[in-house]
Design goal:
single chain, alpha+beta, two-stranded antiparallel ribbon
């Protein structure tokens, strides 16, 4: 990641991925599809699991549950 000051407004910092960061992003793009394919869950089951995990995480946060 690179950070540079905006020439038009030096209060702003512009952030961009480096070539290595872009390559990593490209490699990571298919992770959700690969996880889904490996899960053997149908889409409804996957949505239900996501909702259950979200509920669990929310309940475990200091302000949750």
């Amino acid at each position: 990641m690179t950070r540079t000051r905006d020439a038009a407004d030096e209060r702003r910092v512009l952030i961009a991925l480096t070539d290595d960061g872009l390559a990593l992003r490209d490699r990571a793009e298919d992770i959700p599809a690969r996880l889904f394919a490996q899960s053997d869950l149908d889409p409804r089951e996957l949505v239900a699991l996501r909702n259950q995990l979200t509920t669990l995480v929310d309940a475990m946060e200091p302000t949750g549950g």
